[in-house]
Amino acid sequence: MQGGEVLGLLGPNGSGKSTLMKTIVGIIKPDTGNIRVLGTDVATDPTTIKRMIGYVPESPRLYEFLSGVEYLDFVADIHGLPKGERQERIVEFLRALDLEGRENELIHGYSQGMKQKLAIIAALLHHPRVLILDEPLNALDPRSARIVKDLLHKFRDNGIPTVFSTHVLEIADAMCDRIIIMDGGHIIAEGTTQELRKKAGTAGSTLEEIFLKLTGTSDTKDLVEALGR
Amino acid sequence: MRPNIVWPLAVVLTKSQLRGRQRSKRLAKLFGNPRIIFIADILILGILGTVGYYVTSNFPHDFMTAAGRVVLEALIGIPTITTFMIILFGILSELSQPIQSTSADLVNWLPIAPSDYVLGSTLSLSYTYSFLLAFFLGLTLGPAIFLGYGPVLVASALMGVLSLFVGSSVVELIRSVTNRISSSFYRKSGRSGIFARLALTIIVLVIFQLIFSGRVIASVLGRLTQTVAEVWYVPVMWPSLTVESLNAPTTFTPVGYGILSLGFMLIIFGLAVGMRKAYWVPVPVAIKLSAQPYHASIGMLRIPGANVAESAIIQKDLRSLTRRREMARFLAIPFVLAVSLWVSLYPYGSSSQGFGLNDIIPLYLIPIAIFCEVLSMTSIGQEGSAIWNLYIAPLNASNVVNAKMYLTNILGSIFTCGLLLAISLLSKRGAGEILSLLLMGLLVVIEESALGVYVAGRFPDFRETVRSRYVSLSGSLLGPLLALVVATVTAAPILFSDYVPAILPPVLFEILIGILLFVLLWKLAIRQVAHLLTEIQV
C-alpha cells in the first residue's frame, strides 16, 4: 500500500475480510506467506507492529466492568502515552464523539454505538501509523460517523495508510482509493471503482451493481418476489 | 397464566439451563434434551431404591427396628432439605452467571406476561433440580418399602414436589431482586456498592457452603426431625410437618398442614410474580463511578515492581475481580476450604496439645495452594472475548505473565498472612514456627501463581457461559493436582527433616527448592503465553 492510501475490503459475509485483517494485525497466523507492515514482518516482531497499528475489530468486546476512561487509560498505559498528551487526546476524543459526561460509567451500560466509539478512540489514541478498521462505522450515529469519516480523510492527508471493510458500498465508493472484493477467502477483484467497472463489464453502473455482479449474487429478483408474497 | 405460553417457555428455559452448562458439543447434544432429566430421575430412584431394598433386607431384624426411626425421620426431613438445597443450587447458579445474562430480558419483548414467565421459569427450575428430590427419595425408597412406610413415602414425595416448587419460587424471587434492584443500588452507591456486593456475596457463599457440608446436613437432619413439631410456626417446615402428622398426633391434621403448605407455596409464588412484574421492563444499567471530569493520572497507576503496561493489566484485573459477581465464587474458595479443613481436622480442646507443626502444614498449605492456583489459572480465560485487547496490544509474553501473577501474589500473600494470624491465635505456636510457616506460605504463593499462569495459557476457556470455568476441563483437573504436588515438594524439607539426613538446614533447602521451582514454572508460563499470543482463540 502507498502512504495515505485508503484500501476498502468488500465481500459477502464470511468471505474472509475480518480474517485477513486479523492476520495483518498479527493475531492470526497466515497459512502461507508473509505480511510486512511498514517494513516489519508480522510473524517475527508482532509487538512492534501492534505499537504502530490502530485496529478496530468487527464487534469490539471491551472490558465491561471498567468505566470508559478506565478503559482508555488502560490502552494509553499499554502504549505508554505520556500524561499530558493522554489528557488532551482522551478529552478531545470524548468530546468529538459525544461521550463526554458518560466517561465515568461502566462500559457494561453503554449502547452498541457507544462501545464502538470507545473502540475507535482506543485505536486512534496512540497516533497509529497504519489503520486497520473492520466495519468501523457500525452502529454509529450520523454525526459520529461523519466525524470518523472526516478523521479518516485527515489521516489520509497525513499519509497514514488505512485498510477498512464495510458493507455500505456508498461509503466505500466515496472513501476508498482502491477496493478489493473478496469471496470464499479469495480476492476476486481489485482496483479503483473505474477499474472494477471495466472488469465487471458494467459501464456506468454503481458499486453495488459491480459488487453483486462480481460476487455472483445479482440474481435476487425471484427471491424477493417469493419472500414478498 | 396461559399454558400455551408457559409450557414452551419452560421447555426453552430448561434447554438453555442444560446446554449452558455443557462445554463440549457432544455433551451438549447428550444432555441438551430435557428428557434426560426424567430418565436420570427414574434411574436414580430405581438404582438407589433397589440397592437400598437389597441392603435393608439383609440387615438383622433388631437393627432394622432401630433403623426404622431414622428412615422415618429422613422421610419427614426430605421436603425441608429439598427446599434448602434448591435454594442453595439456585443461588450458586445465579451468582456464577455473567451479569449480562438476565434471562427475562431475552423474552420480555415478546407477548409474555410476567406471571407466565415466573411460572415457566419456576417449572423449569423445579424440573432441572428434580434430581435432588429423586436422590433423597431414592435413598429412603428401599428401606421405606421394606419397613412398610408406603403412605409416609408417598406423602414425603408429594410434599417434596411442593417444596421443590417453593424453593424454585424463592430462587425466581432472588433472580428478580438481584437482576434489577441491585443495578439501581449500584447506580446510587457506585464503588462502595460494588465492594459491599462482593463482600456480601462471599459471606453468603461461605455460609451456604459450610451449612450444606455433609457433616452439618447430617446433624441438622437429626435435630430437625426431633424438633420438627416445635417449629410449627416456620412456614418452610409445613411440608415436613404434613408428613410427620401422618403418624404423630399433632395440633393440625395432615390435611391442615398440607393446605398451609400449599398456601405458603402460592404466597411465595405470588411474591415472585409481583417482584418480576415490578422489574419486568429493563432498567438501563448505567453505573457511574465518579462525577468528576477525566484527569489523566499516569503517576498514580505505576505499581511497584511492574512497568506501566503491566500495571495497567493489574489495575484492570483488580477492578474486574471486584466488579464481576461471578468472580466471587473464586474468592470464596480459600475461606470455605480453610474453614472446612480446620473444622474437620483440627482437634479442639486438650487433644490439640499434641498437634505439631507437621500436622498444621497441610491444613495451612492446601488452602493457600488451591486459592493461588485457581485464581491464577483462571486469569487468562476470564478475559473472555475481550482477550483481543491483549492480543492487539504491544505486549510481550513476560508482560502478560508478570501482570497475571502479580494480582495472585498480592491476594495470596494477604490470605497467607490472615491464615497465619488465625493459626497463631488458635494454636499458640512459637515465633520460629510462625516465621517458618510464613516463609513456606509465601514461597508456595509465588510458585502457584507461576504454575497457574502456565495452566491458564495452556488450557484457556474463553467461553462466557453459566458457571464459566475460564480453564478447560483438563486444566481444571490438572491445575489443582499440580498445585498440591508443588506445595508438597516445597514443604518436603521441613515435613521430612526428621527422616532425611540434611545436607543443608531444612529452611535453606526449602528456599532453594522454592526459588528453583518458581524460576522453572515462570519460564514455562512465559513460553506458553508467548505461544498463546500468536493465535487468537476467540
Secondary structure class of chain A reads alpha/beta
What is the number of strand segments of chain A?
A: 8
> Beta fraction of the residues of chain B?
under 5%
- Terminal CA distance of chain A: 47 Å
Instruction: Tell me the number of strands of chain B.
Output: 0
Global Rg of chain B: 27 Å
Largest sheet strand order of chain A: 4-5-6-1-7-8
Largest sheet of chain A: 6 strands, mixed
Average pLDDT number of chain A: 88
Radius of gyration of chain A: 19 Å
Helix count from the secondary structure assignment of chain A: 10
Number of H/I helices of chain B: 20
Share of helical residues of chain B = over 70%
The biggest sheet of chain B, with number of strands, parallel, antiparallel or mixed sense and barrel status, is: none
Description:
The complex is a heterodimer of chains A (229) and B (538). Chain A is of the alpha/beta class. Chain A is built from ten helices and eight strands. Chain A has helices at residues 17-25, 46-52, 68-78, 83-96, 112-124, 142-157, 169-175, 193-200, 207-214, 221-227, and strands spanning 6-10, 36-37, 40-41, 53-56, 130-134, 162-165, 178-183, 186-191. Chain A has a six-stranded mixed sheet with strand order 4-5-6-1-7-8, sandwiched between helices. In chain A, strands 2-3 form a two-stranded antiparallel sheet. Chain A starts with 5 loop residues before the first strand and ends with a helix. The model of chain A has no long low-confidence stretch (mean pLDDT 88). Chain B is mostly helical and 538 residues long. Chain B folds into two domains: 13-278, no CATH class; 298-532, no CATH class. Chain B is built from 20 helices and no strands. In chain B, helix 17 packs antiparallel against helix 20. The longest helix of chain B is centred in the middle third of the chain and has 62 residues, at 150-211. The model of chain B has no long low-confidence stretch (mean pLDDT 80). Chains A and B meet through helix 2, helix 3 and helix 4 of A and helix 12, helix 13 and helix 16 of B.
